[in-house]
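Final report, closing paragraph on structural work. Over the funding period we assembled a curated collection of sequence-structure pairs, and we close with a single example.
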Amino acid sequence: MLQSRRRILRAAAAMAAGLPALARPAPGAGPELALLLDDDARQLAVVDAASFEPLHRWPLAGPVHGAPRLSSDGRAVFLGVRDGWITRHELPAGRETARARTGGALVDFALSADGRWLLAAQASPGGLALYDSALQLVRRYPAASLDGSVKSQVAALLHAAGRRSFVVAFDTLPELWEISYDRAAPPIFDGLVHDYRMGEAIASSGFLGVRRTPLEEPFTALALDAGGRHVLGVAPPSSALEVINLDVRRRIAKLAADARSAAGLAGFASQGRPMLAVAGADAALRIVDAAPWRVVRALPLPAPAMVLRTHAAAPQLWAGSQAGAGESVFTLVEKEMLDAAGTVTLRGQLLGPAAFSADGQRLWVSMRRDEGDGVAVCSARAPHAARWMPTGRAPAAWPVS
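Its predicted structure, as stored:
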């Protein structure tokens, strides 16, 4: 029993060593650590990533919802629980130090780049709650139009690190919000922008204020371009991809790229130019030049992509499709030439989670096989040399360093 438990921990910790680092602790801060969710995501373990031995294990407030967010110094991790709790845990001590109730079922949450602000979106009643790093409530934002006539649930939430802000989309409210935690953020003028030049408008503070961008239709999925100045949104029933410039607060492009979710978007650079890959529901991968915002290449896939991943240090884009019940195919696209460079076939069914290692040299793919769940580890330099790591269940582990 003990040996079996240690094998599972070793496999999960080894898997975690290949996932993207959430943060890097200061030199000399101690051993390299990994986080491991256990017991149906109801327990958290801190694992020594070198020896694969658990250092601490403690219960959580409930099943974890989404990925953990780590503080900038790597010493605290924040977890969300679907029924509405946000918890803070100290590492490597291995204990919960703060807990906050958001007021409703948790939709998503985001942590600022400096770790000082946490924004949580709740399902009912719809709204946002802003906390400090100690999970003390700072402010609540009702999810409603300026006059309160239109209320909505939050559809998507992301962190724009380069702008020191959070971006929010809604189910039924045709607005895009930007909430800045930059104390030097410019004031917000609700209404006609030209009013402030005439001295007629009353400005509200840009710091922690809501900067609203009107939309034709609500966005249900969000992504940011590499520079962080543009939000990419999908507004059903159309599958077109809309590009919103956050500086001018208006749409600057609309692409017939057949995008269905933010999971099918990946930004990258090709020969020094910003590009965007869009995996459509029509089994095609479209490459968009982000300078004029136009489709420059369309590449066929064996089936609609379930996974689209890349890394700044990786030479290819990886678009994963479920070719059959027991076979998954990754189409590789060379980023410099924008050409398909072949495929990698893996036995098993894609479970969805996939992530590059911190150095961009390995892609870790969560998969299901007849003999059990595990992780396929693919090398970016030798893509066909994949290794299989059984875990006994769908992987749920992240490295701290």
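Residues 2-16 form the longest helix (15 residues). Residues 2-399 form a domain with the Methanol Dehydrogenase; Chain A fold (CATH 2.140.10.20). We thank the funder for supporting this effort.
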